[in-house]
Amino acid sequence: MTRVRLDAATVTVPVDGAAGHRTRTVLGPVDLLLTEARVSVIGANGSGKSTLLRLLNGLVAPSSGAVSVDGLDTVRHGARVRRRVAFAFTDPLSQLVMPTGREDVELSLRRLHRSRAERRLAAEAVLERFGLSALADQSVHDLSGGERQLMALAVVLAVEPELLVLDEPTTLLDRRNTLRLRALLEDLPQSLVVATHDLDLALHADRTLVVDAGRIVFDGPPAEAVRHYVTLADQP
C-alpha cells in the first residue's frame, strides 16, 4: 500500500489588503501517516479538506513542514510523486480538456506510449474496462454528469497510479450515478483518499479524518468519525 506522511505540514495564504504581508493559516500543522487502502475525509465547506488533499500530490506545497509519498518529497520530487498519485477534481470538466473522452485518455497515455497507434490501442482498452467505449467519441459536453465523472476517472487511472485522491467526487451526481461511482471505487486496486460530504461513502473506508477549521479533530474508525462530525455540525 502507498505510504503518505505529513510532518507538521502547514499551509498559509496571504491576507488580502493586510499591511506587513500578513498571512492566514488554512491548514495545519498536520502530522499524519496514511497506509490504509481506503481513507475518507469529511468536514464542512472551507474546513481545509481540499487543501489537505492537494498536499498529497503536490498541487499545493506546504508553507512549512513536509509531505512525502513512499519517501518522495512532494516539493523536491513533484513529477515522480504525481506519477504515483492521481487527483480527481469535483467537476470533471476541470479534467476533461480535449473535445472527446478518447482524446483525453490518449493524452494521458502520451508518456507511456510514444506511438500514436499504441496509444490508441491502450486507450481503447481503458475505455472498454470502464464501459465507456460507446461514449468515447462524443463531445464531453454532451455527456451526463455521471458519464463525465466516469470518463474523468478513466483518464486519471489510465496511467495506473498507486494512489487515487478524489475531491468530492459525488457532489454533482444523482443517486444512481453516485451508487455506480461507489461500486467502481470499491473495485479499484489503487489506494484511495476521498474527501466527501456523502457520509454513506465516507463509511466505506478503513479510516476517516474529520477536518474542522484547518485542523484534524478526529482520526479513527469511520462510524465514530461520522458521529463526531454530525455532533460538530449540529452545534450552533
Automatic annotation (TrEMBL):
The keyword Nucleotide-binding applies. It comes from the Bacteria. The lineage of its organism: Bacteria, Bacillati, Actinomycetota, Actinomycetes, Micrococcales. Keywords: ATP-binding, Nucleotide-binding, Transport. Belongs to the ABC transporter superfamily. InterPro entries: AAA+_ATPase, ABC_transporter-like_ATP-bd, ABC_transporter-like_CS, ABC_transpr_CbiO/EcfA_su, ECF_ABC_transporter_ATP-bd, P-loop_NTPase. This is ABC transporter ATP-binding protein. GO terms for molecular function: ATP binding. Residues 4-236 form the ABC transporter domain. Pfam families: ABC_tran. PANTHER family: ENERGY-COUPLING FACTOR TRANSPORTER ATP-BINDING PROTEIN ECFA1, HEAVY METAL TRANSPORTER.
